[in-house]
UniProtKB/TrEMBL annotation, chain A:
InterPro entries: NADH-Q_OxRdtase_suN/2, ND/Mrp_TM. The chain crosses the membrane at residues 20-40, 47-69, 89-109, 168-186, 198-222, 242-261, 281-300, 312-331, 338-359, 365-386, 407-427, 447-471, 483-505. Belongs to the complex I subunit 2 family. It comes from Solihabitans fulvus. It is an enzyme of class 7 (translocase). The keyword DNA damage does not apply. The gene is nuoN. NDH-1 shuttles electrons from NADH, via FMN and iron-sulfur (Fe-S) centers, to quinones in the respiratory chain. The immediate electron acceptor for the enzyme in this species is believed to be a menaquinone. Couples the redox reaction to proton translocation (for every two electrons transferred, four hydrogen ions are translocated across the cytoplasmic membrane), and thus conserves the redox energy in a proton gradient. This is NADH-quinone oxidoreductase subunit N.
UniProtKB/TrEMBL annotation, chain B:
Its main location: membrane. It comes from the Bacteria. GO terms for cellular component: endomembrane system; membrane. The chain crosses the membrane at residues 12-35, 42-63, 99-119, 131-148, 194-213, 219-240, 261-279, 291-313, 320-343, 382-403, 428-450, 481-500, 520-546, 628-648. This is NADH-quinone oxidoreductase subunit L. GO terms for molecular function: NADH dehydrogenase (ubiquinone) activity; NADH dehydrogenase activity. InterPro entries: NADHpl_OxRdtase_5_subgr (IPR018393), ND/Mrp_TM (IPR001750), NU5C-like (IPR003945), Proton_antipo_N (IPR001516). GO terms for biological process: ATP synthesis coupled electron transport; electron transport coupled proton transport. It is a multi-pass membrane protein. Residues 151-431 form the NADH:quinone oxidoreductase/Mrp antiporter transmembrane domain. Coiled coil: none annotated. It is found in: Endomembrane system; Membrane.
Length: 520, 649
């Protein structure tokens, strides 16, 4: 009898914990519906429907996440034949992703700052032609950006939850491909935008190759692509370690590329600068969350037992990233490029927390991701407001004396920059504090000292902008500050408020982030 | 030790809401400061009402406490845990005992009178409301100082009164002299505050607590050197706040503030905080004879300096200020005598609070009638024109010089006697100095009264600073009534407090019993007679030098050395400059040099290095995908190679 039942079980389709994966299914499902909208709705009605669908989807996904999270099993749930793990970190990462995506979608949907929105009206028109000038003045936008956003977000959610490397790879591609497209959709400076898209695509493909090659080597080593199997193999076998470490190195390079950790950051400044600012916000906030979610899971799940061998190498990578971000940020003249280098430095700080490999390290990194993402969304929201006749005035010299013309915008931006610099009473400080204290506890004092030095160096270029805004005379033909519409105002408000709240009362978010560990 | 304070009772009943004492004036200050111009109309009424209310409540508290047995009179009211950090646990609580209640009554009683007086005195000031806000702030801080149940709470109040004092000395901010005086007071107080702060650090480091009850219980376990250090540091704090040698010179300058401020803060209450501090710390001072000796010496030196300089000034408020310095010297001398003098110091503090506040209000009344003139050489013959001021001022004057039967006689005479009760040379030195001080006090105060109220009306042919004629007149009722009440206190307080040892017995739970010396170098009766004789000699000398002949309107320039020295504050400022200012300047200069050349050099060098590196590295960001890919490839090879190298090394 028992044999019969076990056979019957083998035949069954994989069990799906629908309640647990509902947020992800909602997002991916809505992405498909969104494609149908593009196909069947008349052009002028698409924007409204798409915005409504996206916002409702995000809200619905968030609600289902909260409902599930309230009584989710502490140990987590494995589903789809153990391919996805919905544990506490996954839930926190999903929540963070949904929140940040909501902010980014608000920026994407905004049509008041730039008439018609930040996106090109017809992407197929060649840049620089007569038609291009006509389209730049048109009110419509390429609403495909909404399904693309949803697909990317769905990919990110799968990426954070993936329990085996192959699923992770598929998710990586699902999240990357829409981003490559979105990077090229800017309404103004289209050549720059398209160049950014191509660069991102080429380098992304390159990184994916590393990632895939790493998976292949690891499969050769462990005979499986499941994280848990790799961990078991690494813990006690006499198989060739060359395969393990070469595979791990290549795999990690692929992940570090997505997280824009130096020296795999080279795409970051160009892509951040060229992409439409709302897309930059989405990329900077959400991609970083997904990538570090993946890094945490891979390091904790597959390689925790061999950390003595690889930790030193990742120390080096973290230091390199912090150094590159902090030092190169000093001489940037473009505000978006400056924030790009800042994100490279932050990626270094995040890596410090990720290689602590303790529950404190995990919760600290998760908190840091939430705090950094919210601050970043608001920061790019502000960047999109300062404009002149050619679109965004992103050259720093144009920001001189901004506080005289627009004290509120300058004040909020100052606050956000202070948060990025990690000044107390902002979420940035709490984030750095929890990450560095976790690193200290796992015996990485020298690394923390280096990190502190580089956060001091990085503070310099944030403060430079503040000085520029407050203590320089405004240029005569300087940019104007657009009065933002409801969407952008909301995005900036959410980001700035969260930065303050997480800085003053961080404990509730820290509790969520520390509610449970990974399950493999 | 007969200190009963160790068995503090939990505060119940009326005392349970003692936080009201702090809350009322704080509320007043907040409403007036936050309310701004909207409260201009009734600001002074609210300000006075809060202090009056506090006084009434304090009085009720006082009477409910006198009904208790002596050992139950010390009550502690725990309010909240203030600083709960690791080993440092500071509770915010109040200690209601005879000593603190005495101060509460003095502060709120005299404070209420001076608030009422200020309603009239400041009526022409556009910012009267803000003035009342600061006064309320002061009262709140001063009450916190005396009511706190630990040294940290005391320090909080201590700094609060320092702030209020700074704000009020600099009240006439358009006068550079007022701004300078405020800054001077603030800076010199910092020197003293440093001492107090370090004393508190020492207590915490050695005892692990700063609450009075625990500190006093454990202090005996410390080595005598540490105890001496703590007492001397506390004394430094007291010297700063109470204008004692060598930090006395800020107090006369503080007279730049409005006269009610001089009366309340710089005569009756705040400047006596040092005396309170030493009296409150009596269990610590009891343990170290050397510490007490130094306190006594400081008090004696200060009382003489105050008297001598007081003889040379022509500015009516400065004479009174130096008189304050000198009288606080008496109090410090008294508390330095330890169990022989704690209660006497507090008694002199109380009587002095009455008559000195009265004298200052009188001086303010004279100035009010004389277009804010302070130079006594321009006064003269005012007694007919300002009868109430004259009578109240005269009573204060008699009380101060120790005229038999009036307040000062009882309190000062007792201190002089106690000083003579010390053994050997100490009795002669301290007693003799205190006796001499009494004579000098009589001299300079008589000189002041003669120059102000008697003699020719020298102001008749003169014009005031703003070019108007002088029309001396009596002040309005809101000013004279407080003066009358204070005059009554000047007359009767001494007898009331000393008859039947009322005050001494009342204070026993806080300060221990007052000991009587066994042997006096001069018999007590003789001391009393000598004091009266010296006082009369001082009065007579003043009559000979000042009263008999006309007073020159401009002050004589060619005078003997002692007068020159006295006019220069006995070189107190020069001393301060040499002791504190110049080393401080040298230190800052040296630090600025190190900062400019060393620190800035390193910082600028680092910045230049980073900037240069950044500029060079930027060139690596070429914009070509091929070079980006190359750098990625290089990074990947490095990572993999490093991983393998670590594994197989």
């Amino acid at each position: 009898m028992s044999g019969f039942f076990s056979q019957a079980q083998q035949l069954q389709a994989p069990d799906v914990a629908y309640q647990a994966v509902l947020p992800m299914l909602l997002v991916l499902g809505a992405a498909c519906v969104s494609v149908l909208f593009e196909a069947f709705l008349p052009r002028e009605r698409r924007w409204g429907w798409q915005v409504a669908l996206t916002v409702v989807t995000l809200a619905g996904a968030a609600i289902s996440l909260i409902v599930y999270g309230n009584d989710a099993p502490k140990a987590g749930v494995k589903t789809f034949s153990d391919v996805l793990t919905i544990d506490r970190p996954t839930l926190f990462l999903w929540g963070t992703l949904l929140l940040l995506a909501f902010g980014a979608v608000l920026l994407i949907a905004d049509r008041s700052v730039e008439p018609g929105g930040a996106f090109v009206a017809q992407a197929a028109i060649r840049p620089g032609t007569l038609q291009d000038r006509v389209q730049a003045a048109k009110v419509g936008m390429q609403t495909e950006v909404f399904p693309l956003t949803l697909f990317a977000l769905g990919g990110m959610m799968v990426f954070c939850a993936a329990n085996d490397l192959l699923t992770m790879f598929v998710a990586l591609e699902v999240l990357s491909l829409p981003l490559y497209l979105m990077a090229g959709l800017a309404r103004r400076r289209r050549l720059l935008s398209q160049e950014a898209a191509v660069k991102y695509f080429l380098l992304g493909a390159f990184a994916s190759a590393f990632f895939l090659y790493g998976i292949a080597l690891l499969y050769g080593y462990a005979g499986s692509v499941k994280l848990a199997d790799i961990a078991t193999a690494a813990a006690g076998t006499n198989r060739s370690d060359t395969l393990l470490f070469a595979g791990m190195g290549l795999l990690v390079v692929g992940l570090l590329f997505k997280a824009s950790v130096g020296p795999f950051h080279t795409w970051t400044p160009d892509v951040y600068q060229g992409s439409p600012t709302p897309v930059t916000a989405f990329m900077a906030a959400c991609t970083k969350v997904a990538a570090f979610g993946g890094i945490l899971r891979v390091l904790m799940g597959a390689f925790a037992s061999t950390n003595w061998e690889w930790r030193g190498v990742l120390w080096g990578v973290a230091i390199a990233s912090m150094a590159i971000g902090a030092v190169l940020g000093l001489t940037q003249t473009d505000v978006k490029r400056m924030i790009a280098y800042s994100s490279v430095a932050h990626a270094g700080f995040l890596l410090v927390g990720s290689i602590a490999l303790t529950s404190k390290g995990v919760s600290g990194t998760l908190f840091y991701l939430l705090a950094y993402g919210l601050t970043t969304v608001a920061t790019f929201g502000i960047v999109s407001l300062v404009r002149d006749a050619d679109g965004e005035a992103s050259h720093l010299s144009q920001w001189a004396g901004l506080a005289k013309r627009s004290p509120i915008v300058a004040g909020v931006f100052t606050f956000l920059l202070l948060a990025l610099a990690g000044i107390p009473l902002t979420s940035g400080f709490v984030g750095k504090f929890v990450v560095f204290s976790a690193a200290l506890q796992s015996g990485m004092a020298p690394l923390v000292v280096v990190a502190l030095v580089f956060s001091a160096v990085a503070a310099f270029f944030y403060l430079r902008v503040i000085v520029l805004m407050y203590f320089s005379e405004p240029a005569a033909d300087g940019p104007t500050v657009t009065v933002p519409g409801a969407f952008t105002t909301m995005a900036i408000t959410i980001g700035a408020l969260a930065t303050l709240v997480l800085g003053v009362f961080p404990s509730f978010a820290l509790d969520w982030a520390g509610a449970g560990g990974f399950t493999f | 030790m007969t200190n009963l304070a160790a068995d503090a009772q939990g505060a119940t009943g009326l005392a349970g809401s003692a936080w009201l004492l702090l809350a009322l004036p704080t509320l007043g200050a907040i409403v007036l400061l936050v309310g701004g111009r909207r409260t201009n109309k009734w600001g002074h009424i609210l300000g006075s009402a809060t202090v009056l209310g506090t006084f009434v409540y304090g009085l009720a508290l006082f009477f409910s406490t006198t009904g208790l047995d002596a050992y139950k009179r010390t009550q502690e009211l725990h309010l909240f845990a203030w600083i709960p950090v690791n080993a440092l646990k500071v509770d915010f609580g109040l200690r209601l005992d005879p000593l603190s209640l005495t101060f509460v009554l003095l502060i709120t009683g005299v404070g209420a009178l001076i608030h009422i007086y200020s309603v009239g005195y400041m009526s022409h000031d556009r910012d009267r409301r803000r003035f009342f806000a600061y006064l309320n702030l002061f009262v709140a801080a001063m009450l916190l100082l005396v009511l706190g149940n630990g040294f940290v709470t005391l320090y909080f109040g201590w700094e609060g009164v320092g702030l209020a004092s700074y704000l009020l000395i600099g009240w006439y901010q358009d006068r550079p002299s007022a701004a300078t005086a405020a800054k001077k007071a603030f800076l010199m107080n910092r020197v003293g505050d440093l001492g107090l702060a370090v004393a508190i650090f020492l207590m915490f480091a050695n005892l692990g607590t700063t609450q009075y009850s625990e500190v006093f219980a454990k202090i005996g376990t410390l080595p005598s050197g540490t105890i001496l250090a703590i007492t001397l540091l506390l004394l430094l704090g007291a010297c700063g706040k109470s204008g004692q040698f060598p930090l006395q010179s800020w107090l006369p300058d503080a007279m730049e503030g409005p006269t009610p401020v001089s009366a309340l803060i710089h005569a009756a209450t705040m400047v006596t905080a040092g005396v309170y501090l030493i009296a409150r710390s009596n269990p610590i001072y009891d343990l170290t004879g050397d510490g007490r000796l130094i306190v006594t010496i400081i008090g004696t030196v200060t009382l003489l300096i105050g008297c001598i300089v007081g003889c040379a000034y022509d500015d009516i408020k400065k004479v009174l200020a130096y008189s304050t310095v000198s009288q606080i010297g008496y109090m410090i001398l008294a508390v330095g005598l330890g169990p022989f003098g704690y209660a006497l110091g507090i008694m002199h503090l109380l009587t002095h609070g009455f008559f000195k506040a009265g004298l200052f209000l009188g001086a303010g009344s004279v100035m009010h009638g004389m277009n804010d003139e302070v130079d006594m050489r321009k006064f003269g013959g005012l007694w007919r024109l300002m009868p109430i001021t004259f009578v109240t001022f005269g009573l204060g004057y008699l009380a101060l010089i120790g005229f038999p039967g009036l307040s000062g006689y009882f309190s000062k005479d007792a201190i002089i006697e106690a000083a003579f009760g010390q053994e050997g040379w100490r009795g002669w030195a301290f007693g003799g100095a205190a006796l001499l001080g009494a004579g000098l006090t009589a001299f300079y105060m008589t000189r002041l009264v003669l120059m102000t109220f008697f003699g020719e009306k020298r102001w008749k042919d003169l014009k005031s600073a703003d070019g108007k004629d002088f029309h001396p007149h009596e002040s309005p009722k809101s000013m004279t009534i407080p003066m009358i009440i204070l005059a009554i206190g000047s007359v009767g307080a001494g007898a009331f407090l000393s008859v039947g040892n009322r005050l001494v017995d009342w204070l026993e739970p806080s300060l221990g019993g007052l000991k009587e010396s066994e042997h006096f170098v001069i018999p007590k009766g003789t001391v009393t007679i000598l004091t009266i004789v010296l006082m009369l000699l001082g009065v007579g000398a003043a009559w000979l030098f000042v009263g008999r002949k006309p007073v020159p309107v401009t002050r004589p320039a060619r005078v003997s050395f002692p007068v020159r020295a006295a006019r220069a504050d006995l070189y107190g400022n020069a001393l301060n400059e040499a002791l504190f200012a110049r080393p401080g300047t040298w230190l800052t200069r040296a630090l600025v040099f190190v900062d400019n050349k060393g620190v800035d050099g390193v910082v600028n060098g680092l910045a230049a290095m980073l900037g240069g590196t950044s500029g060079r590295l930027r060139r690596a960001q070429t914009g070509f995908v091929r070079s980006y890919a190359l750098s990625m490839l290089g990074g990947s090879i490095l990572v993999v190679a490093a991983l393998l190298a670590v594994r197989f090394s």
